[in-house]
Design a protein that fits this description.
mainly alpha
C-alpha cells in the first residue's frame, strides 16, 4: 500500500503548472485535467468528474483511438471524428460553465 501512495505522490509532483493561468490569472479550457486523471487513477471517479468532467470522454476517445489503430475497426475513423467533435464541444461547454459559475 505504501508503494502505491508513493507513486501517486510522485505523479502529483510531476504535474505541470498551467502557463495560461500563470500569465493571465484565469483558468484555461484544460485546467484540472491532470488532477482529474490522478483522481481517476486512484479510483475516485466522482471527485474526478467534479474536478474536470471532460477528462473521462477524452481518455475514452484516446483508448478507442489506440484500439482502432491496432484492430482496424470498420467505421473507426468516422467514430473518432464524431468523438473529437463531441469532446471539443464538451470541453467548451464545461469551460463556459466554469467561467459563468
Amino acid at each position: 500500500m505504501y508503494t502505491v501512495l508513493s507513486i501517486f505522490s510522485w505523479l502529483e509532483q510531476l504535474t505541470l503548472p498551467c502557463l495560461i493561468k500563470a500569465i493571465f490569472h484565469h483558468d484555461c479550457p484544460g485546467c484540472g485535467f491532470q488532477r482529474s486523471v490522478l483522481l481517476l487513477l486512484q479510483g475516485a471517479f466522482r471527485q474526478s468528474w467534479q474536478m474536470y468532467p471532460p477528462a473521462i470522454p477524452i481518455l475514452l476517445l484516446f483508448v478507442y483511438g489506440m484500439l482502432h489503430l491496432r484492430l482496424k475497426f470498420s467505421n473507426g475513423a468516422r467514430i473518432i471524428q464524431y468523438g473529437y467533435i463531441f469532446v471539443a464541444l464538451f470541453v467548451m461547454i464545461n469551460y463556459i460553465y466554469k467561467i459563468i459559475y
